Each structure stands twice: as structure tokens, then as C-alpha cells.
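User: Structure please.
Assistant: Input sequence and predicted structure:
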Amino acid sequence: MTRKYIMMICFTLLMGWSVSASSQGISFFKGTFDEALAKAKQENKLVFVDFYATWCGPCKQMAEKVFTDEEVGKYMNDKFVCMQIDVEKEGWQKETARNFNVTVLPTLIFFKADASVASRLAGAREKADLLNAAKVVCGEQLSFEKLYDRAKSKKDLADMQLVLKQAPDYVGGLEGMEAQKWIVRIDKLYAEYAKMKMGPDFINKEDFQIVSKFNKKNVKDDAVMNFMAKNLEAYMNKLGEAPGILLVEYNNKVIEQLSKAGKEEYKKYLERINGDLEAAYAIMPTGALTPYEKFKYYYDGMYLLAYKKDAASYVELMNKYLAALGDQVGANDYGEIAQNMYVMSKGKLNNEQLGQVRDWLVKAMQYEGTGLIDRINFVTMLGDTYKALKQFDKAKDAYNQGYMEALQIENKMRSAQIQMIMKRKLQSLELAK
């Protein structure tokens, strides 16, 4: 096969790929932001910008699954000059991200040709969400405000549901008093919607997602949570384990709130674990103990610390708890009881008690496979404990380890934040010596 023929094949393949790529998905403009605005003005279009970073997982998912979709590409290419901006690339890209206060990735912003923001979405979006936002910007669908007004006046359940589905994106793009105003409005609309809808038709994926976002997480005897508990079998048949997990999280928050407040009423909600919420708690792995036994240890301990201020009894109870777990004990078991003791006592512990916190944290650090953020949390508390014990060299080692662990975090913004915290702790350590 001649070299010329090989080159022709390669050229044909490249041309074929290029035609295929341009016929589906978003075609991104390759110029600068200012050039995109000028092009949009000339073509009577808007500008759509995907602010991303090369390390951002959700950004990659959108690039692979949403931006390549044929329907998305057809609509967006017709209505917008679309471009992508790497928030970490020095020069005009990083500067543009800074000018528009991009702090969440991805951030998706729709601009008018004069560079004013028409709408913005923080975080990754599915195809339907992106197209809906684009159509609202183009005036082809009702704006959020008009949809809210219609839903409020007509009390139409379909409109109310649509408002509640769109509310997190809309309110997330607001700031200050304007955001607070809409939060109050949406909370009232949700309460009204749930009261009207609660019944067999309420048991569906869309309404469960709405409940997960808007229902209060720690209100005793909440009507929606009680409805879900009474209909848990129907919920789990339709939606799997998620409703059960939500009920466990809700009930635990109620128990925690009451135990920290020193109200023995927390025991009433603890008993629900063996009662109407038994099927929900059965989902949660609790090792060698039953769910009731595990959470009784945990929240009885909180009661001792928060209300009784009895750290000695807490240590005794938690060591019984660890012994009961036996071979099932793990890093988070040690880490959580250490954190509860240190945080809830506000660090006001004697050296013997601080030594117990230290020992628990050291054991937590010995387990392999612990999540990176958990490890950083444990080692930071360990540094704080060493500092309180005036073991400054060991505290320094712990903080330095936390700094090195932070370098491994994929999210660069979060990594930088934790590195800064470690630096400040190291500086305060020098002053404490």
C-alpha cells in the first residue's frame, strides 16, 4: 500500500469523523469571550458558556453525556454561540471566571450579547434541565417568576410541581435578601403542595425528589415523614431503598436534636427503630449490633455529653460499644465517638479524657481504605488533641500530614481551602508553644 494511499485513507477517516461530530452535539466556539459576544451580536444570538476545569468529574460527565446529545446540539447551536472556559487557564479565561464569580464547577451561564447574565446554573445538569433553562432564556417557556405566579394563583398541582423542581436552580443563582425572599416563598409553596398532594399519587419519583430537597429534616412528628413511614412498603416497591434511607436520616436527626437538648423524649423516637421504622433501619448495615442497639449506644452517649456533661460516663459507654462491635469495628466508629466527645465538650476535657480521644483517633488512622476526607478530619482532630495536651511536635506532625493528604483531593478549590486551614493551624501552633 503506497504512502499516498495511506494518507488518503487517513484524510477520509478524519473528514468522516469531523462531519459526524459537527452533525451532533454542541459545536463550541474556539475564540475568546469577547469574540463570542461579538459573534452573538452579529448573528442575533445569545451566548452559552460552560465554565469547567480539567479535573472536574461532573464537568466531564456533562461533556460526554449532555453536550454530545443530538437534540441538545441542534437547539443550542441554533440559538446560542456556545463556548467552554477553563477556569484555571491563565489569561482571559481565568479572568472571565473570576469576573462572573464562578466558584462551583461546572457553572453554566447564559449571556446576552452585551455580556449581561440572563441565567446561570451551578453544578452539572441533565439534558432536560439544560434544555429547559435554555428555552426559558429564549422566551419559549415561562420564566420561573411567571410560572410561580401562575402556580400560586391557580393552585394547579402540575405547575406547583414544576416550580418546585426548578426552584433549587433558580434560587441557587440569587444572593442576599432576594435569595431569602424566594426561599420563604418556595417553602410556603412546598408546604401547600405536599398538603394538597399527599395520598397515593404522592408516591412517585418526582415528588420523592421534591420531598428530599424541601422537607424539614428535624421536625418532630412531621406529616410528610409520617405519611412516608405509613406507606414505606409502597414507596420502596416503587423507588427502592432511597425512601427508607431518608426516613432513617430524618429520625436520627430528631433523636440527635432531642438528646443534645437534654430531653428524654429522644427515647420515644429511638423506639421507632424497633417499631414503625424497622423496615427502614433494616437497610442500614450495623455490623454485629442490631440497628436499635447501635443507635442506642450512640445517642445515649450524646445525651451524656450534651446534657449531663458526663465525659467519664461517655467514655465508659463508648468502650462498651466498641467491645460489642468486636471484629466489626471500623475507622468511622472510632472517629465518630472521638469527634463527638471533643466537639460536644467544646474541648473542655482533662488530660486523661484527651488521652482517650487521642487513642481513639490513632486507632481510626490505622485502618486502610478510609475515605480521604475522613482521614483528613481524623488527623486534624488528632492534631488539635495533641495541641491541647501540649504535645506540640506531634501536633505539628499531624497538621503536616493533613496538609499532605489535602494535596490528593481532586477538587482543587476544596484542596486549597483545606491546605489553608492546615497552614493556619500550624501558625497558631507556633504561637501556642
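The mean pLDDT is 90.
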